Amino acid sequence: MRQQTIPPRIKWAVDLMDVQPSDQVLEIGCGPGAGAEAICARLETGKLFAIDRSESGVDRTKRRNQKHVDAGRLVVRQIDLATLRVPVKRLNKVFAFNVNLFWVRPCEDEVALLHERVVPGGAVYLFYEANRPELVPNIVKLASENLMRGGFRVSVVEQKAPPVIGIIGRR
């Protein structure tokens, strides 16, 4: 199998999250597994729980990150966030890249689950490619409102190249 690279937008997002070796992380929408690869490379005693509603996303993440699965740093499940029961009581960080859930509809139950599981001082990191600038204000507004209603303090960061918006909800 050919070596897969981690896209610069994912590298930037994971760098911004500052994953620590013992962090307990949840990734929502693991897709092709690039985020999982970047996060797991930083973990030692910590663990990443990656979920996706898509069977193909789960399969791709497992294949790409088999060494991390084998090492016990990565658990991948096909499940929707609304029905997730996180296998650890507390999470340090939550990572999602281009997950529409947080800005396309109210998501009180999902945000409440995250607020319950993220430790004080921990954070939810929602990243979106900003290659359609006309959508960015709406994404930022709606995702921020959903997180704030759920009890998170929100800040927004932006990277120009590649264009990425980060909405960070701190507990």
Automatic annotation (TrEMBL):
Keywords from the named record: Methyltransferase, Transferase
GO biological process: methylation
Record domain Methyltransferase: where: 25-122
GO MF annotations, alphabetized: methyltransferase activity
Annotated signal sequence range: none
InterPro entries: Methyltransf_25, SAM-dependent_MTases_sf
Keyword S-adenosyl-L-methionine: no
Coiled coil: none
Domain of life of the source: Bacteria
Keyword DNA repair: no
Regions crossing the membrane: none
UniProt name for this protein: Class I SAM-dependent methyltransferase
Protein's organism: Nocardioides seonyuensis
Lineage: Bacteria, Bacillati, Actinomycetota, Actinomycetes, Propionibacteriales
